[in-house]
Amino acid sequence: MPYRAPLADFRFLFDRVVDLSEVSATALFAEATPDTTEAILSEAARLCEEVLTPLQRAGDQHPARLENGVVRTSPGFAEGHRAIAAGGWVGMSANPDHGGMGLPMALTTAVNEMMSAACLSLQLNPLLTQGQIEALEHHASDEIKALYLPRLISGDWTGTMNLTEPQAGSDVGALRTRAEPLGDGSYAITGQKIYITWGDSDFSENICHLVLARLPDGAPGTRGISLFMVPKRIPDENGNPGVANALRVVSLEHKLGLHGSPTAVMQYDGARGWLVGAEHKGMAAMFTMMNNARLGVGVQGVGVAEAACQAALAYAMDRKQGASPIKDGTGAIIDHADVRRMLATMKAEVFAARAIALGCAVSIDMARATGDAEWQARAALLTPVAKAFGTDVGIRTADTAVQVHGGMGFIEETGAAQYLRDVRVTAIYEGTNGIQAMDLVARKMMDGGEAATRLIEEIQAGAEVARGQFPDMATALWNASEGLREATEWLVAQDMDDRFAGAVPYLAAFGRVLGGHYHLRAACAECEAGAPEGPRTRLARFYIKRLLPDHAANLVHLREGAADLYALSPDDLAA
User: Fold this and answer.
1) Which pLDDT belongs to residue 286?
2) Cβ-based burial of 246 (10 A; exposed 0-12, middle 13-18, buried ≥19)
3) How many CA atoms lie within 13 A of 303 on its CB side?
4) What is the secondary structure of 211-268 as a DSSP string?
């Protein structure tokens, strides 16, 4: 079954659940009218369904390869990227001063989800370019902005992020790449970077590498790191790609999935680069790009989950196996209770994760449009939740889709396994989900849990409003949110070891409760004015009754702290 964009869900969420109208009511995003939103969603859906979806299997079966120093991309990827660029999709949220559309991040997030569902390997390319655009908008000099932004926004040039080195993974401060001043405002960059997504291609006019490196007087650790723009080809006086820079692709990684996305080992041998932001402040500039990408990666998980869910449903409705256990059944395996359970779980999880991601995007838009500190805190709080919950849902849903397919799920020809292989890395790159959880319980709780508590109070207020219409669901959600509030109070009183020991279950519980909040809002919106219960209400009841209780076990895990983890010695674990 080919992918079909879930336009009805996006429209419903924007109109009735996450309130895009609040964003379009601001002066900054006044042009994001309902008509504009509808046109954007419809045209993006057409691009994804007709142009990008056919590239999904080609990228897997004909991986990117390195030939004589040149990266050859998968069949059709060049044409697919040209279609993305021609539609202006790369620069949707970019500043109009440099050719962007200036649209809300909420719309960009919806489009990125659709592209991820259609062909994740190719979607990674514009996602990284979008992150680089935002980093340059916030931190680059006017000269760098004028030279690079129009070309990145147009899609003629593409961007990468160079953090990781063989000895410096999550510990970025251990990097060894160095930058030597050349006396003319440029720097010589020397070192090796690994895991560079779309480090090269045969369809981009220029590849723009943002590279973390250390100046001669840079202090040890992350405080001494600077950020540099290092182009594959040095722009000439007219801004056109000129002579080749002293950098090269050493090799491409052989990966579990995402075969169409070239993951490069990059070597810089005195390559010329230009400083982005202040000296020794490179991590601040890079985090702008990473935070943008973290929400983008979260919706990659949601997109793959949606595509896997559609494939599993189509298979379950077609596969005849055994006698139907229900009267007037279809005769297909969807009649069986366990298959129905798996499909309902997938559907409910996808809706929750999508709503969380769009809610995060709306918070980012409102923070940008208003400058309000509470919106900024909300956006910061939700970013690690959207990234980790969205990618965990992507992995679980893709895994369940294989199970629904049964033996055929293990056979590559069905394409079911590709979803699982492709999405697995999303819980690892742009900061592992463990790091997202640690960020949530540490940096995002530096306010004593105020931002989290405000959100929990909103969830409880929503549950109170719903009590008259849905007393069972409202009570279950209120009780769960109260447990989350008490756990948050406990959390902020603990030392960091105990916080980190329970960070992953705390984030999982937060996501579960927040997903319940959005499901209940959807049910209330669907059943306004006494309308009979519809599919969104039935899905909400399934989520709140069957999946929401997971939060309780996670909060028990949280409160155990770190003592029993460290009581298990390395020898114990090896015994």
Assistant:
1) 79
2) middle
3) 31
4) EEEE-TTPPSSGGGEEEEEEESEEE-TTSSEEEEPSEEEEEE---SS-TTS-EEEEEE
Q: Which of 38, 430, 464, 486 is catalytic?
A: 430
The predicted pLDDT at position 174 comes to 83
158-280 CATH, one of 2.70.70.10, 1.20.1250.20, 3.40.630.30, 2.40.110.20 = 2.40.110.20
What pLDDT is attached to residue 290? 77
| Nearest Cα to Cα of residue 216 among 188, 243, 184 | 188
CA 231 – CA 211 distance, rounded (Å): 10
> pLDDT value at position 346?
98
Q: Tell the CATH topology of 285-432.
A: Butyryl-CoA Dehydrogenase, subunit A; domain 3 (1.20.140)
Contact 354, 295 (CB under 8 A): no
Please state the φ and ψ torsions of residue 193, each to the nearest 5 degrees. -120, 145
Task: Please list, residue by residue across 52-87, b when 16 or more beta carbons sit within 10 angstroms of its beta carbon and e when fewer do.
Answer: bbebbbbbbebbbebeeeebbbbebbeebbeebbeb
- Residue type present at position 272: R
In order along the chain (575 residues), what is the average pLDDT of each group of 10 residues? Answer: 93 96 97 96 98 97 95 98 97 96 98 98 97 95 97 98 85 88 97 97 97 93 92 96 97 98 97 96 82 92 98 96 87 96 98 98 97 96 98 98 97 96 97 96 97 98 96 98 98 97 98 98 88 92 98 98 95 94
d(CA 123, CA 422): 12
Q: Is 430 among the residues known to form the active site?
A: yes
Cα 438 to its chain centre, rounded Å, is 17
In DSSP terms, which residues pair with 247 in a beta bridge? 268
